[in-house]
Amino acid sequence: MSKNILSLHNISYSYHTIQGETKALKDISFDLQQGEFLAIVGPSGCGKTTLLSIIAGLLTPQSGTIVLPHNSKDMRSSIGYMLQRDHLFSWRTIYQNAILGLEIQNKLSDRTKAYVEHLLEEYELADFSDKYPDQLSGGMKQRVALIRTLALNPDILLLDEPFSALDYQTRLNVSDDICKRIRKAGKTVILITHDLSEAISLSDRILVLSKRPSTIKYELNIELDNEHRHPVRSRTIPEFGKYFNILWEELQNESDSIN
Ligand code: ADP
Ligand code: MG
User: Fold this and answer.
1) How close is the Cα of 148 to the center of ligand 1, in Å?
2) pTM for this one?
3) Which of 39, 75, 32, 83 is nearest to 57 (CA)?
4) What is the pLDDT of residue 54?
5) Per-residue pLDDT, 70
6) Which regions in the chain score pLDDT beneath 50?
7) Mutate which of 49, 159, 190, 211 to test ligand 1's pocket (most atoms within 8 Å of Cβ)?
8) Distance 165 CA to ligand 2 centre (A)
């Protein structure tokens, strides 16, 4: 039986500025199972990034509770957060970028350096260790940003639209490649995406958020065998169309444009 790795109970969050209050999240509750790949979709500006920031511990919800793995405080370090615009530093080499998180958290050691080298091998970037970001393709840079997050060996990965900067074809290949590797490593993932096909082909479950103040509007379990868990092959089976239409309908009622 799978075990709960994260539970959210009635999370609400509002931003307060001099212009007034923006209610972002209202009564968000869900559980995440160990090894699960959860996708979250919702209208632009509904609070998706806010939700990830709360889970990562960067924002404190005004109400509600989060139960983390083993419910211990330092378990925050078991969460890796890859931001929507997670740029590499152009003046640091690929290797220096990859170890940045470890450096900041004061966790550089022979063991962690060896792990980064292993990840660079695994993601076919070892030959580029001494290159600079400008010398790499978009997909490769994305893999470096992911390695920087994985280097801290998180149990849960929070990915905020990680493929949105890539062109369509690269995106299909890179999303397939990265997600296969993440699954193989047994990580638990929350992926935010505005691409419904991507959500269907990559995840085990999809949460649809409403417009602000965001609530969980719909939950959809995705059942694909390994062969069809692929950005292109998933489209060849009848369930794909069914899933897509359900999500589309749910989002249509919320907004004309989603992000
Ligand atoms: P999403 O990621 O779904 O596009 P966000 O979580 O970024 O949405 O934002 C949700 C809402 O909160 C938006 O209306 C946004 O304008 C507002 N918001 C986000 N960050 C801040 C902030 N730091 N201060 C005030 N309002 C914010
Ligand atoms: Mg966002």
Assistant:
1) 25
2) 0.90
3) 75
4) 94
5) 64
6) 257-259
7) 49
8) 13
- Between the CA of 47 and the centroid of ligand 2 the distance, in Å, is 7
Q: Where along the chain do its domains lie?
A: 1-72+156-162+185-259
Q: Which residues have a Cβ under 8 Å from the Cβ of 166 and sit 6 or more positions away? A: 138, 139, 142, 174
Strand, coil or helix: 81: strand
The span from the CA of 10 to the CA of 54, in Å, is: 12
Q: How far is CA 163 from CA 106, 141, 145, 172, 173, in A?
A: 29, 11, 11, 9, 10
CATH architecture for residues 1-72+156-162+185-259: 3-Layer(aba) Sandwich (3.40)
Query: Is the four-CA dihedral 231, 227, 120, 57 of positive or negative sign?
Result: positive
Confidence at residue 133, expressed as pLDDT on a 0 to 100 scale: 95
Nearest to 44 by CA among 61, 24, 63, 16: 24
Q: Does the beta carbon of 33 sit less than 6 angstroms from any atom of ligand 1? A: no
List residues bridging with 208 in a β-sheet.
41, 218
Euclidean distance between CA atoms 200 and 195, whole angstroms: 9
CA 50 – CA 73 distance, rounded (Å): 20
Q: Is 129 in the pocket of ligand 1 (CB under 6 A)?
A: no
**In which order are the strands placed within the sheet that holds 63-67?**
20-33, 4-17, 63-67
Centroid of chain to Cα 161:
7
**Looking at residue 82, what is its pLDDT?**
87
Atom of ligand 1 nearest to the CA of 17: 25
